[in-house]
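Running this now, will post back.
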Amino acid sequence: MVTTCATDRHDHHDVYAAQCPCRDVLDLLANKWSALAIGAMEEGPQRFGALQRRLEGISSKVLTSTLRRLEERGFVERTIYPAVPLHVEYELTGLGHSVAQPLAQLRTWVEDHIDEIA
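Update: finished.
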């Protein structure tokens, strides 16, 4: 039997089902840059440059794409302050804060067990 999630809104979601919208969210959150960006924003609102420095090795293009995807899904809020030059900050929403703890546990687990992983 093939299980599908034909609509975005229903009583039961099954992430193992091919058409379940949960898969897109899992793909977003399981991405290393998303997990690291969310972790960096746990400390409070961050400017783009500060995030890029914190996430060593990320390109501007990938960071922009990551932040845009997180904002579109409601995990991050972008605030533009009218100044010269323009001042933009990114911060976690309530939804973003709710996923920050499980992602922090995953990051900690990886750091604690990296020497055991072949």
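The helical segments are 22-29, 32-41, 48-54, 60-72, 94-113. More later if anyone needs it.
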